[in-house]
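Homework help board

Subject: predicted structure for assignment chain

Our instructor gave us this sequence and asked us to write out the predicted structure in token form, then describe one feature. I got the tokens but I'm not sure how to describe them. Can anyone check?
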Amino acid sequence: MDFNDYQKRALTTNLTKDDRFLELMQQVLGLADEAGEVQSIFKKWIRDQDADFAKLDKANVTKELGDVLWYIAVIAHDLDIRLEDIAAANIEKLRSRKVRGTLTGSGDNR
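My token output:
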């Protein structure tokens, strides 16, 4: 499945609201919530499993990362952005940083 196909399929499970702003804000907050769930898995893995890779619940990580991806796909659609374009632009940005030797450091415009 490619990014655009995923985005189309994700939209079939989106519950839309009449108010575009409220829908977008609900999705943005949902993205933050799901990203927090990914963080929580890793926090508990470090705290309870001493960061033992053999004990990392990859199935749960996969599930929560899927939820993050869903929110990204739906938010992008609401802003008329194709998921494929996000992926391509991100790879190009990172490629450019690598070529220029600026993968490390801080700031968006390096």
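Reply (TA_rk): Your tokens look well-formed. For the description, you could write something like this. The chain has a mean pLDDT of 95. That's the kind of observation they're looking for.
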